[in-house]
Amino acid sequence: MKKYFALLLTMLFLGCSGGSDKPDPQPTDEGKDRSVMLKALAENMIIPSYDQFKTKFDLMSEKSKAFAAKPDAQTLGAFRSAWADAYVAWERVELFDFGPAEKQTIRNFFNIYPASEAGIAANIADPTSSLEVPASYATQGFPALDYLINGLGANDTAVLAQYTTDKDAAKKLAYITRVVTRMESLLGKVMGEWKGEYLNTFISKTGLDIGSSTSLMVNGTVLHYERYIRSGKFGIPSGAMANGIAAPEKVEAFYKKDISKTLAQTAHKAYVDFFNGRHAVTGEAGPGLKTYLDALGAKDSSTGKLLSESINTQFQAAAAKLDALKPSLYEEVKTNNQVMKDTYNEMQKAVRMLKVDMTSAMSITITYTDNDGD
Amino acid sequence: MRAYLQKYTSAAPLAIFRAIFGLMLVISTARFLALGWVKELYINPQFFFSFYGFGFVKPLGEWTYLLFAACGISALLVAIGWYYRQASIVLFLSFTYIELMDKSTYLNHYYFVSLLCFLLIFLPANTMFSVDARRNEAMRAGEIPAWCIDCVRVLVCMLYFYAGIAKLNSDWFVEALPLKIWLPAKNDTPLIGGLFNQLETAYVFSWIGCIYDLSVGFMLWNRPTRPFAYASVVVFHLLTSLLFPIGMFPYIMIVTALIFFPAGFHQKLISYIGRLFRLPTAVAKPAGRYQFPAMVRPVVYAVLAVFFVFQILFPFRYLLYPGELFWTEEGYRFSWRVMLMEKAGYTQFTVTDANGKRQTINNNDFLTRLQEKMMSTQPDMILQYAHMLRDYYASRGFVQPHVYVDSYVALNGRTGKPLIAPDVDLAQQCDSFRHKSWITPFNNEIKGL
């Protein structure tokens, strides 16, 4: 009996040391190395995406200054087009809502819609009003600019009149500048952290417990897909979420209207690219959640199909619904709402896979408390 | 049996057990308070998942702190053996009350602690090495009935053995699940991290873990194997504490297993500590035998007999239910099923009423993340939550609300699927110990016990 137990213990220790004696790095092992994944995602995707956004944002900022200096049809047109480009680029970084972006809660100040027309009017009247409090979220960022350059009048002449002949024209121009300046400052803080100390922190916190990079990143991005792509862009406007009552005025870019599909498509594609670890510049697939899941061998036990493939298939199904929509999601909600609900339902299926199958396969913790894994 | 009941042995092992166990609970309670969990788990949430039949056990608002104070102080009194009998009763009641307040915090080791506290009420653990024995000469005794120590040992053996039996299933043994999923999450551990990427490691851990659980109780009991067994207890529990967030449990088990050591070991320990505290020899090593009062003795025998019969049978109640235990979790708790499943779920509730009102629920408006996580995979909690939603919306103008759930649950790496029939109105289902027919069949087989 004693020998038997001693043998068991020996096996345990042999089992413990067996692997470290042969340090031949197998490709699957590298795929399971989270520091490799985190480094690749930060350097190939997150930081370059912010750089790309910053370029578009700076252009918008420049055009907004030109417009403020000399509001006319030409500067307005240039500002609008730069705004739309920057908004689209924003959709490629909004998903990184963890670490610096979460700390600065940049999304709350960049893209909470629908814009509050009354709140914006009040802020125009009172230039000392706070843009930091939660009540001010809907009075700034891209949705507020959308209202200010596309929604203040019935046509271009009427919009321009607001900035030229209106008695508060100067105050309105000043508010545009105030909004853009505030966005610039927040973006500077977030990018500054990513290019500074946080990058190392991000790569080195390789655990999967709460507070570790992978856990923060997966929880943050899954929440983004669920709440800000599925619900925000489809579930809420279509009424699929509450009471079945459509709310077309709650679509993204409500005043510009015809870019709402592009924004949603960009956001969805950004998420799929993130999942597949695609380089922001070259588009080449690299280490990411897909390679990590594949290295773990996550697959459906009955069919043997890789989980990452199932998820990508579901992404494609959702993208197919999304691609078939008209450029203005506002129009779709008004005239053909079922296709909006269908898109929502396809995305809902992807949400479940991300929230349950993916996080379970990765063994990601969501709470601090003790657990005996019941 | 009669001869066994009249066998006497040194009281030292039980006295040491009392002291260390009490101290561990003092530390546990202090840790719980220090981490802010009282507020997070028992004061902040709006809703609590009570156990079936224990609906009256609820957190007490800010007074919950008092409950924890009572638990911590009584644990300290048990440790030093001062007003031991009263303290052990308060400890059992307060600890058990805390554990019954919310199902989402259920842990097998809390149940184990509750059971040990219950046993301690009936055991003469204060006859030596205690303040009671120091203050009251009449309470001193150097020997107690041998069964008093054996019943603690039996409970420890049962915990391990049943935990081992629970591992005798195809997921654990053939698939190395869930360790296959959990170990790579720790592959960044210094030195040994690389091992956790190897599939072999998951198999070795699974098999050794199972054999360990099945055998360690007997190995501890059997003198020749005891040193190895104890060493394996230490290694095993330290390893699990390194790998999994299981709090105080590993340490409680490591010190509890000392109860298997011979009396001489405990007596030496007591004499050593006794010298430090200048305890009179009459307290550190008293003479005389402890006699249960004649009136009490049959009652204690009866209570303990019922207790152990219950302990033997209760974990097998799952056999009375149809369906896969891991999926339905009918009869899962209070059965020493530890670290057996990687189960994750997602639930989206919809409340409707006769007038066409309809509301999709954001669970975070009602539940904490821990509660949501636990609820999403456990049918009885899903039902409790559905009833809470029913009552909430009934008070908000919904006429006879209906509650439906769109659930998606993944078990041990299988792709997720609905746990609850989506077309069943949970508002109208009653909770009971009967099988819940609205649980979707598992349609897969996990062979074994």
From TrEMBL, chain A:
Predominant place of localization: other
Keywords per UniProt: Lipoprotein, Signal
GO cellular component: cell envelope
PROSITE patterns named among the record's database cross-references: PROKAR_LIPOPROTEIN
Coiled coil: none
Signal peptide range: 1-22
Domain Imelysin-like: 46-338
Subcellular location as annotated: Cell envelope
Keyword Cell membrane attributed: no
Name under which the protein is recorded: Putative lipoprotein
UniProtKB/TrEMBL annotation, chain B:
GO molecular function per UniProt: gamma-glutamyl carboxylase activity; vitamin binding
Topology relative to the membrane: Multi-pass membrane protein
InterPro entries: HTTM-like, HTTM_dom, VKG_COase, VKGC_lumenal_dom
Stretches that traverse the bilayer: 12-35, 64-84, 110-132, 144-163, 202-221, 228-261, 299-320
Domain HTTM-like: from-to ranges: 6-265
Pfam short name (any one): HTTM
Listed name of the protein: Vitamin K-dependent gamma-carboxylase-like protein
Source organism of this protein record: Dyadobacter jiangsuensis
